[in-house]
Amino acid sequence: MTFERSTVDLAVVCDSEGAVATILYDSIGVTCQRGSSFQSLVDPASQGRASDFLAELRVTGSVFDVEMNVVSRHLSETLRFAGGFTGTGYCIVGTRANPALGLMDALDELMQINSEQLNSIRSILRQRETIDRKARVRAVQDFDEVKRLNNELVLAQRELALQNAHLSTTLAELEQAHAEAATQRDRIERASSEILRSNQELQQFAYVASHDLEAPLRNVQAFVELLDSNYGQSLDDRARRWMRHIVTGTKSMRALVSGILAYSRVETRGGEFVAVDMNEVVEQSRSVLEAPLRTTSAILTRDELPTVRADPIQMKQLVQNLLQNALTYKGESAPRIHFGATREGSAWKVSVRDNGIGIAPEHHEQIFSMLYRIHPKYPGSGLGLAICRQIVNRHCGSIWVESEPGEGSTFFFTLPDPAASKTDAN
Ligand code: ADP
């Protein structure tokens, strides 16, 4: 603030109501505070004039040279006042000196300062406007973003609703499929228990029929042989040939009947499962088949075989059938038969390899069916491997062959490992 002391003693800015907003200059120490009325600057005797001064200022915009006493630090001072309207309030100056021109200059200066203040206020307002505008733009942008997000949300909700509907349909379909599967399972369970029952009946029937057929067949064979030995000489060649046919036919019928009997016994007359040393089983079979082994000059070898939990009689029958087949279906050279064993998960896999005539792949499955024979020129009833499969099935294992014609055959069967079953149980 640059008022000359000689020119101005008091300079204030009042708002439009006449309340003191700023004391710009005060050389005499008036007792006044910001916010109090302009009238409070002057002493009681001058207050009427102060009100008139303000009223005139409001109406005319500028007033000069009005004398009023102000209450200063020291005494009551007489000042000459001039004022002007700034647009938002009033600038008022007071001086003890007389020259009105000086007062005018001071007022001009004050108005100018005031207009500088106004300018800075305007610039602040402009800045404020800019900020507001930016804020509005930002708000619009934010609103657009919120709108966009909202749209995305709505789309996502729709997608979710669609997926939900799809899931509900799938769930309903699954439930239906589940219900159908349960019905199907019930049907299968009923059918399989029916099959089991009729299978048992059939086995029982096969057992009874073959058992009951054995004796009459044995009698037919015995009596035909008696007839041949006692009366054979008195018969002509044709009659003797017929009798030989009867004996051959009866023998093969007996083989068939005993095969069916053995087959039906696997389930109906099966023995207890105990620890069975497969090395011993092979050695016992070697003794039983000693004659054919010798006559064919066969070489029978084996690895160290495992001990399994099985029906010992059925293990003998299984090994014997496979060994017998290896001898029966031998090739040109002497049979070489080898028993081996490897672990297969929790079971043992036993193999019986020979160097015989081999089996074409199209027969690999069917040879395990009842009465299936590939080579009618060889003796046999077509029951040996069916019995083997029945035995292995009873031991929860499986049996199969790997072979090519002329390359020999390897039969495999699996049997549960007792050690593994114990570990499982633990
Ligand atoms: P079979 O009493 O006729 O020997 P199997 O059920 O034991 O009846 O065998 C079925 C068929 O499988 C046999 O007729 C034979 O053709 C074939 N076969 C079985 N074992 C062997 C083998 N080791 N080598 C070649 N063929 C075999």
Q: Secondary-structure blueprint of this entry?
A:
Layout: E1 10-15, E2 20-26, H1 47-60, E3 62-71, E4 76-85, E5 89-95, H2 100-231, H3 237-268, E6 274-277, H4 278-288, H5 290-295, E7 299-302, E8 307-310, H6 312-328, E9 336-344, E10 347-353, H7 384-394, E11 399-403, E12 409-416, H8 418-425
Parallel strand pairs: 7-9
Antiparallel strand pairs: 1-2, 1-5, 3-4, 4-5, 6-8, 9-10, 10-12, 11-12
Helix pairs in contact: 2-3, 3-7, 4-6, 6-7
Short overview:
The protein has 426 residues and is an alpha+beta fold. The protein is 54% helix and 19% strand.
Write a structural description:
- It is built from eight helices and twelve strands.
- The protein has helices spanning about 45-60, 100-230, 235-270, 280-290, 290-295, 310-330, 385-395, 420-425; strands spanning about 10-15, 20-25, 60-70, 75-85, 90-95, 275, 300, 305-310, 335-345, 345-355, 400-405, 410-415.
- Strands 2-1-5-4-3 form a five-stranded antiparallel β-sheet, with helices on both faces. The protein has a five-stranded mixed β-sheet with strand order 7-9-10-12-11. It has a two-stranded antiparallel sheet with strand order 6-8.
- A hairpin with a 2-residue loop joins strand 9 (about 335-345) and strand 10 (about 345-355).
- Helix 2 (about 100-230) packs antiparallel against helix 3 (about 235-270), helix 3 runs parallel beside helix 7 and helix 6 runs antiparallel to helix 7 (about 385-395).
- It is rod-shaped.
- About 25% of the residues are buried.
- The model has no long low-confidence stretch (mean pLDDT about 85).
- The chain binds adenosine-5'-diphosphate.
- Adenosine-5'-diphosphate binds near residues 357, 367, 372 and 385.
